[in-house]
Amino acid sequence: MSESREQFVDSDFAEPDGEVEQSVARIMAEVLGIDRVGRSDSFYDFGGTSLAAIKICARLEHVHGWRARPTWLFINDTAADFARKVQSESALAAEAHE
């Protein structure tokens, strides 16, 4: 990955916290073509688009089986907020199947 996160944001980097947040941040970085995404970094600050949101959600489902909607990423645009939404919706889906 040739671009650094400093090209996009001036904020301090905050490490993603927990398995879901770390995975979301890693996949966001891969799809957006950047080195890393911190927990408070916004999807929009890195040039996030609807196509990127679709790719991120598809990769989350492929890698982990977590179903996510691209619209969640537009509303919950930081890695931490999006991970929290994915985790809560996954828990609700699991409860519904019990």
Descriptive overview:
- By secondary structure, this protein is an all-alpha fold.
- The protein has one domain: Non-ribosomal Peptide Synthetase Peptidyl Carrier Protein, Chain A.
- Helices cover about 55% and strands about 0% of the residues.
- It has helices at about 20-30, 50-65, 70-75, 80-95.
- The protein is globular and about 40 Å long.
- The protein starts with 17 loop residues before the first helix and ends with a helix.
- The model is unreliable at about 1-10 (pLDDT under 50).
What is this entry, summarized?
The protein has 98 residues and is mainly α.
Topology:
Blueprint: H1 18-32, H2 50-64, H3 70-75, H4 79-96
Helix pairs in contact: 1-2, 1-4
Which keywords apply here?
98 residues; mainly alpha; disordered N terminus; Non-ribosomal Peptide Synthetase Peptidyl Carrier Protein, Chain A
**Could you give me the name of the CATH homologous superfamily?**
ACP-like
What level of helicity do the residues show? 55-70%
**Termini separation:** 42 Å
What CATH architecture would you give?
Orthogonal Bundle
Broad CATH class: Mainly Alpha
Structural class: mainly alpha
Q: Provide mean pLDDT, rounded.
A: 87
Q: How much is the radius of gyration in Å? A: 13 Å
- Spans of 5+ residues with little confidence (pLDDT < 50)? 1-8
- SSE string, helix = H, strand = E? HHHH
Put simply, the count of helices is 4
Q: How many distinct beta strands?
A: 0
What kind of sheet is the major sheet?
none
Q: What is the CATH topology? A: Non-ribosomal Peptide Synthetase Peptidyl Carrier Protein, Chain A
> What is the molecular shape?
globular
Total domain count: 1
Strand content: under 5%
